[in-house]
Specification:
Number of helices: 12
CATH class of the largest domain: Alpha Beta
Strand order of the largest sheet: 6-5-14-15-16-13-17-20
CATH architecture of the largest domain: 3-Layer(bba) Sandwich
Number of domains: 2
Strand content: 25-35%
Low-confidence stretches: none
Number of strands: 20
Helix content: 25-40%
Structural class: alpha+beta
Shape: globular
Bound molecules: 8-demethyl-8-dimethylamino-flavin-adenine-dinucleotide, P-hydroxybenzoic acid
CATH topology of the largest domain: FAD/NAD(P)-binding domain
Distance between the termini: 37 Å
Length: 391
């Protein structure tokens, strides 16, 4: 098999890269370890920044997103028995977020690739990379019991945090920066209308809770749980009881429970590997960096990486110019670190740290108070949340 760009991973990063390259006349093949139905059902992110929406719409894959996505012009911070709205329309006029599930983005992109005759090889195993610093980098894998070779001019490692592409870079090249948080998120999807029109981020001494949504009939919730917690500890009744305890803290506000459709636990971690490239291998999305989800930045960063990487590949294939390819990682660094800082900051602001003393808890509350009482502080929060490009 041959393609100009071989892409590992059919997540948002790999699929979007393949789609954007196709629109610019560059051929690619996507290789994915999971099945099509698995990637289309995997429940993850839900918040799209305006830049992400614009990228998808301009690329011709925004039709259902514009129809079904829910535009939100604010979010609520809930703490100390009160609700505080961060009003984007007032603080960052003209900018908003769109709530639309990541698996819907994935479905739209898979459909667009297949309709255009694009090739996605699902269910592969034993993926290895060869000669990534030569002019003929190759992806080796097994599919349908057969060994396959995909020879390319470039490889894009879009295989997520647990993929193999980052590890294919020789030792000593990458610098790694990371932090683990001492808790996890239990996420659920429930067949019930949201109890709020906007997302609610709730700080509570029992732990953080988030009320999000997927549609007028489906709600999404997250609870801060122990880092090593087990789903077996969380029968449905306990989840609703805990969500109530953390969210029903404002007079007159009630949470409507419903059947739980899906549950999962996610570790909280920050991670950056730099540079995001070596030889003819380029990393994008979670393969290069992850953030704790409180800032809702992961998928948006993946999309922004891919936008920059596409332009770099297109330059090279059009004219042999390699300045943008050489400068890819440096071009992404500022935005990657802004998202790292915002995500860590929001995580620290909203979660309960068991080891915090009374003084630290007072500081946390003071910070939240400042955020909702100072216009400059709220504006800073809002511009980060809706997304800023740090070019
Ligand atoms: P993905 O989506 O992990 O896709 C990688 C793909 O690569 C495949 N793969 C391989 N393929 C070939 N060869 C191999 N050796 C391979 N190994 C793995 C995998 O099967 C997979 O299909 O990475 P990508 O494309 O970089 O996209 C990143 C996003 O998925 C991620 O950043 C977001 O989900 C993070 N995230 C959020 N981001 C947001 O922007 N807004 C949010 O509201 C938001 N909320 C969240 C989140 C992530 C969460 N979890 C579960 C981690 C909420 C949660 C709970
Ligand atoms: C989600 O809806 O899945 C979601 C929303 C906001 C976040 C993280 C996840 O910060």
């Amino acid at each position: 098999m041959r393609a100009q760009v071989g892409i590992l991973g059919a997540g948002p990063a790999g699929l979007l890269l393949s789609h954007l390259l196709h629109r610019q006349g560059v051929s690619s093949i996507v290789v994915e370890t999971r099945s099509r139905s698995h990637i289309e059902k995997r429940v993850r992110a839900g918040v799209l920044e305006q830049g992400t929406v614009d990228t998808l719409c301009t690329a011709g894959v925004g039709e259902r997103l514009l129809r079904e996505g829910m535009v939100h012009r604010g979010i609520e911070l809930r703490f100390g028995g009160a609700a505080h709205r961060i009003a984007f329309e007032d603080l960052v006029p003209g900018r908003a977020i769109t709530v639309y599930g990541q698996q819907e983005v994935v479905k739209d992109l898979v459909a667009a690739r297949l309709a255009a005759g694009g090739e996605i090889v699902f269910d592969v195993s034993d993926v290895r990379l060869e000669a990534i610093d030569s002019e003929r980098p190759t992806i080796l894998f097994a599919a349908d019991g057969q060994q396959a070779r995909l020879e390319c001019e470039f490889i894009a490692g879009c295989d997520g945090f647990h993929g193999i592409s980052r590890d294919a870079i020789p030792g000593g090249v990458l610098s790694v920066f990371e932090r683990h948080f001492p808790f996890a998120w239990l996420g659920i999807l429930a067949a019930v209308a949201p109890s709020s029109h906007e997302l609610i981020y709730a700080q509570n001494e029992r732990g953080f809770a988030l009320h999000s949504m997927r549609s007028p009939a489906v709600s999404r919730f997250y609870l801060q749980v122990e880092a090593d917690d087990d789903l077996a500890n969380w029968p449905d009744a306990r989840i609703w009881e805990e969500l109530r305890a953390r969210l029903e803290t404002v007079p007159g506000w009630t949470l409507t429970p419903g059947p739980i459709l899906e549950k999962g636990i996610t570790a909280m971690r920050s991670y950056v590997a730099e540079p995001m490239q070596f030889g003819r291998l380029f990393l994008a999305g979670d393969a290069a960096h992850i953030v704790p989800p409180a800032g809702a930045k992961g998928m948006n960063l993946a999309v922004a990486d891919v936008r920059v990487l596409t332009a770099a590949f297109v330059d090279w294939f059009a004219s042999g110019a390699r300045a943008r390819l050489d400068g890819y990682s440096a071009a992404r660094s500022r935005s990657v670190w802004r998202a790292q800082h915002f995500s860590s900051w929001m995580t620290t602001l909203l979660h309960t740290f068991r080891d915090d003393d009374a003084y630290a808890r007072k500081l946390q509350r003071s910070h939240l108070d400042y955020l909702v009482r100072s216009r400059p502080a709220a504006t800073s929060f809002a511009e980060n949340y809706v997304g800023m490009e740090m070019l």
